[in-house]
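Thread: quick sanity check before group meeting

JM: Hey all, I'm pulling together slides for Thursday and realized we never actually wrote out the predicted structure for the chain we discussed last week. Dropping the sequence here so it's in one place. If anyone has concerns about the input, flag it before I start.
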Amino acid sequence: MNPITPFRVRIKFAKLENLRFIGHLDLQRLFERALNRTGLPLRYTQGFSPKIRINIASALPLGFISSAEVFDFWLNAPVDLQEIREKLQAALPKDLQILDIQEIPNQAPSLQASVYLSEYSITLPDTYAQNNIKAKLSHLLASETIPVERRGKTVDIRPMIKEWALFSKDGSTVLYLQMDSSATSNGRPDELLKLLDIDPADVIIERTKLIFEE
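JM (edit): ok, ran it. Output follows.
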């Protein structure tokens, strides 16, 4: 009997405002339930408690929205991509929107192993003056180290910040950040905002791009 060749599917999706406080594990369970409702020939993990084989690229922090999230899942047989998209979108809440779908070679590296940068767009309320933020950020990034506390440990986030820009868009001040997003070095925009005396709860933090190693 010939072994089944898995059919690997990659989904790019948006996580919108009403789901910003759904955490990573709850999001994964939500996708598992939605996939179960599609009737697709899903591929499961091996072992005593098989689960749908699913791989989300990078955990999105609680409270963030995104137009750039990515996950892979596997089927036991090829299915037309448009059919997959329609069935899965119909099973998802409206604030999870499928933006793109692709077939991916099975030998391609895992998403977690290949993602290494994230880009963020942070829309600030009018109460934060652009010039003051720019001066504070320039001063902060001139430091050799920027220590923050994470789970009882001190972490230097300065090398995790790769690029930044501050500009006006539609009458609002927007902060652009590019930060590390790997298993070994993961920058968090909300930590930087707190150092700028900006409450992350007052702003909209959107992940706009995940960058993968070629």
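AS: nice. The chain has a mean pLDDT of 94. The chain is about 25% helix and 35% strand.
JM: adding both to the slides.
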